[in-house]
Amino acid sequence: MATTCPSTSTTMCRLLLIFCFLLLFFSCFVSNTPVHGVAQAKDGYHTFDVSSLLPRNKCSAAAAGGHGGLAITYNYGPCSRSGRKKSTTPIFLQDQSRVRYINDKSFTQYSTQESVADRSPEPKRSVNTDGYFLVEVGIGRPRNNFSLIIDTGSQITWVPCSSSEERKNNSFNPSLSTSYSPTGKNYSITYADNSSSEGVYGCDEVALDADVFPKFQFGCSRKSSGDFGNASGMLGLAQGDQYSLLSQTASNFQKKFSYCLPPVEDNKGSLLFGDKAISSSPLLKFTPLLDPPREFDSRGFYFVELIGISLAKKRLNISSSLFASPGTIIDSGTVITHLPSVAYKALRAAFRQEMLQLHCPSIRRPSDGILDTCYNITVCGGRYLKLPEIVLHFGGEVEVSIDPAGILWQTEGNGACLAFTKITGDYSGLTIIGNRQQVSLKVAYDIEGGRVGFGNGCMN
Fold it and tell me: Is 49 a catalytic residue?
């Protein structure tokens, strides 16, 4: 027998049924709508002001991304500590070195994540560190603040140290901190671009915004080489052993953190830890964290299941197996997303066809040779540019729409290039989702929950 509403409650019952229908419709709509950055595409295209991609001279936005946290800035620009202008040195030389280093590890060439003593040294070249993002971390008592690179591919947090009677050159002097104690253990790190840091592990009070950890073990660097730009050292956010930040703060933060990377240098983003990293964005969509392939000596990288790419609402004819073998990682230290050659060529061909139909003239690619699909964006329709939407499809029915600032990389003058490239080398390397394709998104890591979440535009 069908259940009926009492006649005295007919109106209330109808309202309840309408509410349930709307709730069901909203749930279905949300589940099928891609997560997006600041700019939400309409009918497969972004339309935005070209000037939004151009540099500005004033830091115009407070830290965004939710309820406090550490402010994230570019390594240059008005919001950085130095305030310097963007470098004209090709930015992707260092990116190439990092990607090559990560992919070399697929063959277990190295015994540890951050030791590359067996590799051929990189040629000495002028590199550009503008692709890095920085946060300020306090160390010692009294507290000294250091600008550190946030790196999900590095386990160790380190700062430069000095033994002089006074703190100099933005270094940490253990003798001037009343809370410092030595551990008697040494460390040595050589990074992909042949930069390095070596010293001892120290133990001292470390402040991550309002959260203070009295006995945090970090690298006290006595010697470093290479170019870290305006950064003093490294904030390692990779999964790791007893020296990793996530392990040392696990009792407080439960191995959870999230970040929002600013799309342009006059904005600030935010790095959050603990439950608020997840709760500050209630509409996060999660995809599972995967175990690394057995032959990959990872110990720290975050593997996810990328299954496809869409352009202008059209799914590209790319097999998901291309991204699965040897796998896909999401990385804050790599700038540009590196795709398997077949996948990149499919994306490039479709993008070029769309831009041709939008009457956007192509120009010569930049001298660094990585980005090969470039345009004069000032003559693509005037002040407002129409751009095809790019969506990354992940396992768990998660769709992530790339912000326009992550689709185009501005070059010198009025040029801008498709901000993707192909994996180079004689092997099938890892697909790496770089930080440029993460700008304006909330990206949340829940390591103990085995998942990575993406949330809608987190900038003010």
Answer: no
H/E segment holding residue 131: none
Maximum Cα interatomic distance, the chain, rounded to a whole number of Å: 88
CB of 49 within 8 A of CB of 253? no
Element housing 393 (H / E): strand 390-394
CA 31-34-35 angle, to 5 degrees, is 100
Query: Is 368 a known active-site residue?
Result: no
CA–CA separation, 269 and 440 (whole Å)? 8
SS (H, E, C) 312-325: CCEECCCCCHHHHC
Q: Convert the pLDDT of each residue in 342-382 to its tens digit.
A: 999 999 999 999 999 988 889 988 776 688 999 988 888 77
pLDDT, tens digit, 9 for 90 and up, residues 281-339: 778 999 999 998 877 766 689 999 999 999 999 999 999 999 998 899 999 988 999 99
The count of residues in the chain is 460
- From edge to edge, which strands make up the β-sheet containing 415-418? 362-363, 374-376, 415-418, 408-410
Residues ≥6 apart with Cβ < 8 Å to 437: 336, 337, 392, 402, 406, 419, 420
* Residue among 78, 84, 71, 206 nearest 135 (CA): 71
Picking from 58, 34, 39, the residue whose alpha carbon sits closest to that of residue 49 is 39
Share of the chain above pLDDT 90, in %: 48
Select which of 193, 204, 266, 331 is catalytic.
Answer: 331
Taking the C-alpha atoms of residue 272 and residue 211, their distance in angstroms, rounded to an integer, is 11
- For the segment 161-174, the average pLDDT, to the nearest whole number, is 74
* Residue whose tokens read 């690298």: 219
The helices-and-strands tally (H runs, E runs) of the chain is: 8, 28
In tens, the pLDDT along 67-82 reads: 568 999 988 888 887 6
Residue 220 has which token pair? 């006290």
User: CB under 8 Å to 258, separation ≥6 — which residues?
Assistant: 65, 66, 271, 272, 277, 278, 280, 281, 442, 443, 444, 445, 453
**Active-site residue, selected from the candidate residues 104, 151, 204, 209:** 151
